[in-house]
Each structure stands twice: as C-alpha cells, then as structure tokens.
Amino acid sequence: MEVKQNYIPAFDENELKQVQLHISKYPKPMAAVMPVLWMIQDKYGWISIEAMKYTGDLLGLPYDHVLGVATFYTMYFKKPMGKHHLQVCTNVSCMLRGGYEIYNHISDKLGIKNKEVTADGMFSIEEVECLGSCATAPMLQVNNREFYENLTTQSIDKLIDDLRKTV
User: Fold this and answer.
1) Confidence of residue 5 (pLDDT cuts 50, 70, 90)
2) Helix (H/G/I), strand (E/B), else coil: 140
3) Residue 142 phi/psi, 5° resolution?
4) Where do the structural domains in the chain lie, given as residue ranges?
5) Does pLDDT of 42 surpass 70?
6) Residue 167 — pLDDT band, cuts 50, 70, 90?
7) Per the CATH hierarchy, to which homologous superfamily does domain 13-72 belong?
8) CA gyration radius for the chain?
9) Alpha helical stretches, state H, 60-98
10) What's the pTM?
11) What would the pLDDT profile of 117-163 be if each residue is shown by its tens digit?
C-alpha cells in the first residue's frame, strides 16, 4: 500500500464497476458506503475529506453522512499512516500474554506513540482491540492484511528490520 499524502480521489473504470457491484448488493446505495470507503483507503492509504465527498457523490449521499461513517469506525484512517501500519492487540488475551510489552517495545523502538507516524513515513503504530487470535497471543497485523502471532521482542525486531527492507 502506497500512502499518498495529498490526493484527488478518482476510481478507474474497473474500480467504478466494483462500486456498482457493492451498490447492487444492497436495497439502497447508502449501505455501500463502508466498502467504498474501504476501497479508497486501500487505494490511497487513508480517507481525506475530498475522498469522503467523492464517496458521497458516487453514492448520492450527503457528505455529512459519509463523514459520520468514516469518523465512527476506527478502521478508517482520517490522516496518512505509515507505509507499514502496525496494529498491536492489547485486549485481554494479548494483554495477559505481553501485548502491552510488545506495543511499548515497538513504540520505543520507532520513537512514536499511538496513531503517530515515523519521520520517514515508513511506520505508524496503533493500539487496537481484539484481532481474533487469542490462542496465539500476543499478535499484531500489518496494513490490515498480514498477521503475526506468538510475538516476542526478538520477533518484533526482526519484523521491523524486514519491513524496512521493503520498497
């Protein structure tokens, strides 16, 4: 995922077909707002005010409705995050098995706090609730796609080193 700092949202022809597919799944276009916002975040790395307006235009919805959805759900980023967004679970199972130690280790190693981005734009960190991996806690996910379980500070150091090598 490439994070774009400033962008003018626009979907290509294939993406617009995907939007239409989402709209067709529901009785009213309003219900497609979440998957369309997800498409925008997946494409640009975050959801700008312009992107919320674009979503409203696509779905025939007022900006205020889209804003309400985007700000209610924490899964939507309203500011640019790092190229590698690390979400660390600190819910009960992860907490009991070292989730806060993992979170604090990453925070200290990268010199950032919750929802902050490193100066080079490479990493951001977020403390999150349950990621559904209680039996293999502590765990984190990277960019809402890759899951890492049974974490230790050593495995975290290796993960961060490996992520630094990616382009």
Assistant:
1) confident
2) strand
3) -115, 125
4) 13-72, 84-164
5) yes
6) low
7) NADH-quinone oxidoreductase subunit E (1.10.10.1590)
8) 17
9) 63-72, 92-96
10) 0.82
11) 999 999 999 999 899 999 999 999 999 889 999 999 999 999 999 99
